[in-house]
Specification:
Length: 535
């Protein structure tokens, strides 16, 4: 164990140099980091919300609105199905979390139920032979349609998971580093966005479902009939997003093109007016539909609708082929960029309700960094006093050198992996450095025991490493498993603490065993001592 092998020396030197290089960007001001040569690493640690400030939101997924929307769509499916079967009906509408209707002709009641089962029945995932929807008869030729509870729960769970993924994509496209997004409870999402000091912008970005649709405007109905509420069954009245743009319009419920058919959305500027706009590109299906509709409806208007509000309603001047289009409106450059981000990230399955919001100022973060730095210095100082006081300047100093290498490696690895340093992470770093000297204590005490047993210096030193190595590995493996469990099942600050701890376990074994061994071997070869200072 005490042989000064070339590979050991090379490994220690390489690890130390790399640790220093990757830690350096965290120790230099930004101007100095920018001036470093191109081959030098420039990526530093990402600071968490508690260290650099930012915003946090607690959002609730509105699963009730999701099921209401599903029932609304099902009402249209019921109407279309029965009309295709030429079955007369009345009193069609939602009630009590389901759909009720009455069949006019008693002789067609069974036919209506069978037709609805063919159209609406969807297999229930995870249940052999189960269906998402129940269709049952009631007195007076009535039919009741409702979702089974299992279908509602599965739909809600999918909505929450989909919302988390879309929220993550939207925040990532803002350029924010290392947001923390986690599910909380059954239908809530907790978000921390370090560096985002404007929670209102974040709420605006995440609060929109961003359901983009292209719907034809129905000009066949007079404004008086619209005002009186006499609307065709397949129509709906939608307002403008900006009321100053005009009065609400009557549009067809049927979507011509939807946001799911988009392949790209980017902000731009109108070359003639210089006003901000959003450029769109559709996939093959969207391009075909868009081209067909604009070809068959020249001179008519279609509405561009976002979350049931009209962005614009231009007149189709001619066929629009090629799968591209643009949206103009009262955009600013920032709002056009945010709108493009929403469209690229995709639509939320339902709206998100802001339950709680908090903002952490940068001043609090700076205070936390100073407090964390001070505690680290005090902790390392206490370890230095202990090691030097017990084992002297030579052996205690070698332990401290290993501790410095350990710290450089931890910070360097966290910088390379883009990890986020939080206040609990600093606590994990301090704990790791404090515990790291335990391995040196085990090695040194084993050397003392071997010397008392009458063994030679070189044998005692070799036994100190070889016989303590099993205990060191056992303790650190247990430590690592605990950290991995925390990382797997924790969230937010707990994960930051566990990640720092996991890296620290790996670097501790390296620095406390290999670095210490190489330094002691150098000292022994250079001085050929007669006794050990710790004897």
């Amino acid at each position: 164990m005490m042989n000064l092998s070339r590979w050991k020396v090379s490994l220690v030197v390489i690890a130390t140099v790399l640790g220093l290089l990757f830690t350096l960007p965290n120790l230099l001001p930004k101007s100095a980091v920018a001036a470093l040569p191109g081959f030098m690493p420039k990526q530093g640690l990402n600071l968490g919300l508690d260290l650099q400030g930012g915003s946090s939101l607690l959002l609730e997924v509105d699963t009730g609105a999701l099921m209401t929307e599903r029932l609304t769509n099902m009402v249209e499916d019921v109407r279309t199905t029965l009309r295709n079967e030429q079955i007369d009906f009345t009193d069609l509408g939602q009630a009590g979390g389901g759909i009720n209707l009455r069949i006019t002709d008693p002789a067609k009641l069974t036919q209506a139920q069978n037709a609805l089962r063919r159209t609406l029945s969807t297999p229930l995932a995870g249940a052999q032979g189960g269906q998402e929807v129940t269709i049952s008869g009631a007195p007076d030729q009535r039919i009741r349609i409702a979702f089974v509870p299992e279908a509602f729960d599965a739909e809600s769970a999918r909505a929450v998971e989909q919302s988390i993924e879309i929220v993550r994509r939207r925040i990532d496209q803002l350029g924010t580093k290392e947001p923390d997004i986690a599910r909380q409870g059954k239908n809530r999402i907790f978000i921390q966005v370090p560096g985002e000091s404007n929670p209102e912008r974040l709420k605006s970005l995440l609060g929109q479902t961003a359901k983009l649709t292209f719907q034809m405007v129905d000009d066949s109905v007079s404004p008086a009939e619209v005002a009186a509420g006499r609307l065709p069954p397949g129509d709906e009245v939608l307002p403008y997003a900006t009321p100053a743009d005009g009065a609400p319009l009557l549009v067809k419920r049927r979507f011509v093109v939807t946001g799911e058919m988009l392949t790209g959305a980017s902000p731009g500027f109108d070359q003639q007016t210089g006003r901000a706009e959003v450029n769109l590109r559709f996939n093959g299906m969207g391009a075909t539909r868009f081209g067909d509709v604009t070809t068959n409806n020249v001179g008519k208007r279609f509405a561009i609708v976002l979350d049931k509000k009209i962005i614009s309603a231009p007149v189709i001047q001619g066929p629009i082929q090629g799968g591209s289009g643009r949206i103009t409106g009262n955009f600013t450059p920032e709002s056009a960029n945010d709108f493009a981000v929403l469209l690229r990230a995709g639509a939320l399955p339902t709206r998100l309700i802001v339950e709680e919001q908090r903002t952490v100022g940068a001043e609090l973060g700076a205070d936390a960094v100073r407090a964390g730095g001070l505690s680290a210095v005090v902790g390392i100082g206490a370890v230095a006093v202990f090691m030097i006081g017990i084992y002297g300047f030579l052996f205690g100093g070698i332990s401290l050198i290993g501790l410095v290498v350990n710290g450089l490696m931890i910070v360097g690895i966290m910088s390379v992996t883009g990890a986020t340093l939080t206040l609990p992470g600093i606590a994990g770093l301090i704990l790791t450095l404090a515990v790291a000297v335990d391995a040196n204590v085990l090695i040194y005490e084993r050397m003392r025991d071997e010397l008392r047993a009458g063994r030679s210096l070189i044998s005692a030193m070799d036994a100190g490493f070889s016989r303590a190595f099993g205990t060191i590995m056992d303790a650190n493996i247990t430590h690592l498993l605990s950290a991995l469990i925390l990382f797997q099942f924790g969230s937010g600050p707990v994960k930051g603490f566990a990640w720092t701890l996991s890296i620290g376990v790996l670097t501790t074994v390296f620095s406390a065993v290999l670095v210490t061994q190489v330094l002691l071997a150098w000292w022994f070869r250079a001085t050929r001592p007669k006794t050990l200072p710790i004897a």
